[in-house]
Structures are given as C-alpha cells and as structure tokens.
Amino acid sequence: MDSFKKENVCEELKKYISKENIYIDEPMSKHTSIKVGGPADIFIKINTVEELINVINVATSEKEPITVLGNGTNILVKDKGIRGIVIRLCNSNYEFIDDSTIKVGAGMLNAKLSRILYEHSLSGFEFACGIPGTIGGAVRMNAGAYGNQIQDIVLSTRYLELQNDSKYVIKEISNEEHKFGYRTSIFNDKKRIIIDTTLKFTKSSQEEIQEKMNENNRQRREKQPTDKPSAGSTFKRGDDFITSKLIDECGLKGFGVGGAQVSTKHAGFVVNTGNATAKDILELCDIIKKQVFEKFGKEICLEIEVLGE
Fold first, then answer.
1. C-alpha closest to that of 161 among 200, 190, 203
2. What pairs with residue 98 in β-bridges?
3. 267 and 168 part of one domain
4. Quick one: which H or E segment has residue 10?
5. The domain that contains 282 carries what CATH number?
6. What is the pLDDT of residues 95-116, one digit of tens each?
C-alpha cells in the first residue's frame, strides 16, 4: 500500500476508530512476543464487535487484506512486514452466565482471566494461567498444558465469518463444532474471526486454585526460557515422538543463526537473543528440521504461524 493510500484509508478508519488506535507502518516487533517483525501497513487496535465490523467494511471497500491478531504470541512476522490492515483484538469484556459459566471477549489475556476466575473460586483454567496469549488465540489453536486443553472447558464460541461475496455473518457453534485437534480448530481458517467464547468451570477453593497456578508457573519458569523473547513452543509434538527430545539429541541446544538460538533450557523453543530477524529464525528452523530428519527420519512441523513477507 503506497503512502497516499495509507493516509486515505486511515482517514476513513478514523470515522469509526479512535485515532490513537490507528498506526501507519507500525513495526510488528512491538506487537509480537518474539520481538521480531517488519512493519504493518496499517495497524489497528479494536475493542468492540462494532469496530471490527466497521474495519472489515473499510478494508473490503478499499480492497485491502486483513490480518487478525491477539497478543502476538505463537506467531512470527517476516522482516518485510504485513501488507494491508492488521487488527489486534483488544475486546476483553466478560459476563457471567451463571455462577460457573462465563462469556469472555476474544481479546482477554489468559493471565487476566485466571485472576478473575480465582476471585470467583472457579477451577479449570489453572493450566493456562501462564500461557502469554489471549483466550481467542487459545481457542483458535486449542492451547494446552499439563494434560489439559481449552477444548475441555469450551461450551460455545461466537465468531464473524467472512463470505466470498465480501459480506460477513455472525455465527455461534458448540464445542463439537469447533473440530478441536492437537493445536488446531476450525478457526485455523482465517475467514473466521473469534468474537467471544463461553467457558464452563467447577467450584473450588481459592487456596487449591492458587496452589495449582503456583505449581504450573513454577514448572514453566524451570523448564521454559521465560527470560528471552520467544513465540512459545516452536514445533509441534510428533504422533509418536517428543520433538524437543529429538532436537536435544541432535546436539542443537544453544545452536544459533544470527540472533536466533535454540534455547539452552528447552530445545523445543527458538529464542531471540536480542537482535534476531525473522530470516535468522526461519533459517534456524530449517536447519533443525533437516538435522532431525537426517538423524531420526522424522519430519517435524512448526507450531508457530508465519505471517507477512
């Protein structure tokens, strides 16, 4: 998008979005957990469904692609950035349906939801308290840890589906209709944008909930490289093998390309040592894949999503 068009599109967006929430040529390194990524042509923070619909309408009329993000975890933006309009969902509203059921906006941070549930003595989300993303992202990828997954607590999800004729429709689906799998759901289709999700929990004491959260966070600090920027677990588990174990057995812990490095604490994480580029990270991932295949005959797949150009 050229500079003239960016300015024109932004002027149109300002009719619906506060100008302080609209950015031109915004470095995506500011909005990703791995602190890497070139500029988005236009970057927007939205807080309501109405704002989302208005942005989609503008993007459609201007024939610009849209990319929707949560908290920027589990993604890698390439060094030339993202063309079109990038939307960051910040809708963190919530409401209790009953004393154990809550509807949560897709932009709600997992850590914040953990505290809300703790205050209401609700158990079932402790596994996600340290996952540094949003509930929308967690549902989209069926996030999990310590033997639990989001699919265990989801009742339904409401989402906006983009149609081929440039229109949209809002739908709501049950747990079964999510088609949850290992780090996947129907929301891997980029035409479906999560608005909110309804979750069911069980009553417990705050002491037990806090104890579980403390233990999960302790394990996360001990086993994962929380001291360096990363996009979370870089590779998916295999059907019959643990990917990080194979990477470790290839002797790749600490191996790096430019500013990208295989974590010395957990071989399943590629970290940014301070000045990594997306090119560094992708080159390192290719080397890891090649060495694992050569040594063990196993093909490993990225868990992180690569965006941009």
1. 190
2. 101
3. no
4. helix 3-13
5. 3.90.78.10
6. 999 999 999 999 999 999 999 9
Q: Which residues contact 207 (CB under 8 A, 6 or more apart)?
A: none
Domain boundary among 71, 89, 107: 89
Cα(299)–Cα(57) distance, integer angstroms: 41
Identify whether residues 203 and 148 lie together within a single domain: yes
Beta strands 66-69 and 82-89, pairing class? parallel
| Strands annotated E in 163-282 | 168-174, 192-200, 202-203, 256-257, 260-262, 270-272
Residues 6 or more apart from 123 whose CB is under 8 A from it? 117, 201, 202, 203, 204, 208, 209, 212
- The amino acid occupying position 103 is K
pTM of the model: 0.91
Amino acid at 72: G
Q: How far apart are CA 105 and CA 89, in angstroms?
A: 9
Interatomic CA distance for residues 81 and 173, integer angstroms: 33
For residue 307, report the phi and psi dihedrals to the nearest 5 degrees. -125, 155
Total domain count, the chain = 3
Active site residues: 183, 233, 303
Quick: pLDDT tens for 113-169.
999 999 999 999 999 988 889 999 999 999 988 888 999 999 999 999 988 766 889
Q: Are strands 260-262 and 305-307 parallel, antiparallel or unpaired?
A: unpaired
- The sign of the torsion formed by the CA atoms of 125, 129, 131, 132 equals positive
pLDDT score, position 166: 67
Q: Is 98 exposed, middle or buried (0-12, 13-18, 19+ CB in 10 A)?
A: exposed
Structure tokens at 28: 């995506």
Which single residue is written with the structure tokens 């500029």?
Answer: 39
Cα–Cα distance measured from residue 127 to residue 215, given in angstroms and rounded to the nearest whole number:
10
Neighbouring CB atoms inside 10 A of 42's CB total 29
H helix runs in 177-309, sequence order: 206-223, 243-249, 278-296
* 218 shares a domain with 117: yes
Name the residue range of residue 79's domain. 3-89
